[in-house]
Amino acid sequence: MTVLAVRGLSVSVGDTELVKDVSLEIGAGERVGLIGESGSGKSLTASAVMGLLPEELDVSGSVELDGRQLLGMPERELSRLRGRAMSMVFQEPMTALNPSMQVGKQVAEVMRLHRTNQDPRAAAVDLLDRVRLPDPRRAAKAYPHQLSGGQRQRVMLAMALANNPSLLICDEPTTALDVTVQAQILDLILANTQGSALLFITHDLAVVATVCERVLVMYDGQIVESGLVLDVFTAPQHRYTQQLLASSDLESTDENGRLKTVSHD
Amino acid sequence: MIEVRDLRRTYRGRLGRPAVDALRGVSFDVAAGQRFGIVGESGSGKSTLVRLLAALDTPTGGTISFRGTRIDGVPERRLKFLRDELQIVFQDPMGSLDPRMRVRDIICEPLKRRDDERLAELLDAVGLPLDAASRYPHQFSGGQRQRISIARALAPDPKVLIADEPVSALDVSVRAQILNLLADLVERYELTLVFVSHDLSVVRHVCDTVAVMRRGEIVELGDVEQVYQQPLHEYTRELIAAAPTLRAALARFQEG
Amino acid sequence: MTTAVKRRTPTLTAGAVLVGLVVLVALVSFIWTPHDPTRVDAAVRLLGPTGDFLFGTDKFGRDLVSQIMVGARTTLYVGVVAVGVAALIGTPLGILAAMSPRWLGEFIMRVNDLVLAFPALLLAIMFGAVFGASTWTAMVAIGIATVPSFARIARSGTMQVMSTEYVLAARAAGRSRLVIARRHVLPNIAGLLIVQSSVSFAIAVLAEAALSFLGFGTRPPTPSWGRMLQESQELLAVQPRLAIVPGIAIAVAVLGFNLLGDGLRDRLDPRLAGRR
Questions:
Q1: What percent of chain A has pLDDT over 70?
Q2: pLDDT surpasses 60 at C276
Q3: Mean pLDDT of chain C
Q4: Contact with chain A for residue C3, Cβ under 8 A
Q5: Domain membership flag for residue C84
Q6: Cα A25–A30–A31 angle (5° rounding)?
Q7: CATH code for the domain of C147
Q8: C260-to-B194, C153, C179, C204 alpha-carbon distances in Å
Q9: 8 Å CB contact of A56 and C1
Q10: Which residue in B57, B53, B70 sits closest to B160, CA to CA?
């Protein structure tokens, strides 16, 4: 069953096209990775799906969630879907959380807003437990700055999962975290998104390969290659993917002991 | 080259918050020509260590000697020799370049005077065009900015280069270019390199020796291959296991 | 993202136009005014607007337009000197407070708070009582009263700059504090200071008008918008024009500098300017 269907999505500012004719589909329970370097348009694509693009940008194409067209949908309807049918986890949990509100309340609010739970307060504590925050009852009363980076990201994840969204978008969710914490967060994401469609954005090939089955490679606003992770990463077709793979491999070097690089600087 | 003995640094707690022991007795030596890696996660004390090595901060206890001369707690005016011989490349290529200064002035900053000949040499060494000199940092990509930062560090012709997470803010493909550049420069100028990173696999590629830090202490120190292949400390093993690698991840598909 | 979204700033444009108007009027007044603004002529007192006297005349028969024009000079003069005094004392003080040891910085800022707590008008009245009220005492008093806001903004800006890696890099390059303050701190807080100047300018214009109104500012016969207001007081019921004209002039200048300040704030905000 297709959850997210994007067709011919383009994002532009003035005459510059930042995202060019992007199409992708994600089914329920499917985990798809979107890789590419900064400026390749991967975060813009995610924002376009969520309807969170700045007003100055023009969007065209089609974005369907559970069969409903999101592009051109009035903001009021869109905001009812955000946090319920689709939610997002950002790279920097500190800026995505309200610094002056207890995290338990922030999690509860997501449910209160969409009236999806009879007892949001208790449900929030359950959710914090589900994302394995130690002592969830006490953690619920903490403010964001009292938590570590990893703990904050767990809270973000709890908020994103609160209403069992059919689509979860993770935009570089572990880039700002320590390696050992990253492993735990990735496990959590894997364990908690079994039924949802997952779009996982990252620049880290190893992370994508750990989390996803399918992968889309974005370069200069376009999807230049897509397919199963195993296929794309073992037999890359596009030149950019080939070079990206080569330069990320720290164990294979040329005759001078130097890494292979992508030449487009 | 560098001798560190029982180095300690405690940050006083403010507004009722407890004091933080950022470093709790760290000792090691860096020999001339060595490529010395320091690996640790946030809170390990590696950034504090970098500041102390560059005498930008004063330790609470212990000593640091540079070529036999103590540099801990020494006033700035007696550190001129250190400023010429030891330079730093910082992590954030945007944050470490003054946005209101031209590249020319940034690179010449350690020289304390304009020297166009040296400037041209440095730009060439890091692979930037000559006309970069008159532009501002925001006009460059992340990788190019890190090249500017490296050119600045090389300006006084130092013997020791401290690279503090120089590639962790960069894209994978750019990371490879910068790592190669660093390797070239270390070879060409016979630099002693202290390379700080959270990523053991990067350190493994760049360095010959590694110190693994956790909570202000060195838990393991030795030959990088040895540490990577046969980690002795529990934490080092955890660190290696936690880092996802493409090989391991792909193996998951091949098995299933 | 490499797309710089051009920010439209109507505020900046409007502010610049209003301030430009005041400056232009002041400049023209040096070479030409319709009448001598200080010439007393009982024959033409309290005339309504005519072709010769565009806004009419006051109770001494002086031309309102000419007074407004020359008054613009006083206004700008006061603003420039007051803001100049405040910036020249406040900025180094703030930078010093941010870069010196904690105790000294705290001390400077507490003294600063003391000055801030002291009403500017009271200070000006005291100055006037001691040195004799004049445009000068008003300017200096307003300037001193504005020092703390400059010191504060300079300190917070400096602390932000001092915590950046490029300052750390400059220190690693062996730069002294003085050089860091000149080469790194000043250029990076200049935007903040310009914005503060513009807003302070507006406050200074108002303060001078208030002081002149109270009789502690510009002395007769030098035209001043504030004194024009004061002189209009007794005739307010019969000749509201005499209050409205300088009132509008003050409003235009204050609004202009405030808009300019806001517009510059948007344009120069380091967080926005830093966007690639």
A1: 98
A2: no
A3: 81
A4: yes
A5: yes
A6: 95
A7: 1.10.3720.10
A8: 50, 18, 31, 15
A9: no
A10: B53
Residue C221 lies in a domain: yes
Interface size A-B, in CB pairs within 8 Å, comes to: 101
Q: How confident is the model at residue C117 (pLDDT cuts 50, 70, 90)?
A: confident
Angle between helices C135-162 and C102-117 (to 10 degrees): 150
Average pLDDT of the residues of chain B: 91
B 71-90 residues with CB < 8 A to A: none
pTM: 0.80
C134 assigned to some structural domain: yes
Please report which confidence band the pLDDT of residue B188 belongs to, taking 50, 70 and 90 as the band edges: very high
**Do the chains contact at B201 and A257, CB–CB below 8 Å?**
no
> Kindly report the CA angle at A83 between A79 and A85, in degrees rounded to 5?
90
Instruction: Give the 3-state secondary structure of residue B110.
Output: helix
Q: Please compute the mean of the pLDDT values over residues C12-30 and round it to a whole number.
A: 86
* Helix, strand and coil in chain C, % to nearest 5: 75, 0, 25
Among all chains, which residue has been given the structure tokens 């999505």? A9
Residue ranges of domains in chain A, CATH in brackets? 27-57+76-85+167-265 (3.40.50.300), 94-164 (no CATH)
Count the domains in chain C: 1
Which residue, B150, B167, B194, B149, is CA-closest to B52? Answer: B194
**Does the CB of B78 have a partner CB in chain C at under 8 Å?**
no
- Residue ranges making up the domain that contains C257: 2-24+70-275
Is there a domain that residue C51 lies in? Answer: no
Whether this model's ipTM surpasses 0.95 comes out as no
Q: Which residues lie closer than 8 Å to C201 by C-beta, 6 or more apart?
A: C79, C83, C257, C261
Q: Label the pairing between strands A31-35 and A214-219.
A: parallel
A19: tokens are: 């995202």
When pLDDT is averaged across residues B46-61 and rounded to a whole number, the result is 92
* Residues contacting C69, CB < 8 A, separation 6+: C25, C26, C28, C29, C33, C37
CB contact under 8 Å between B149 and C169, yes or no, is: yes
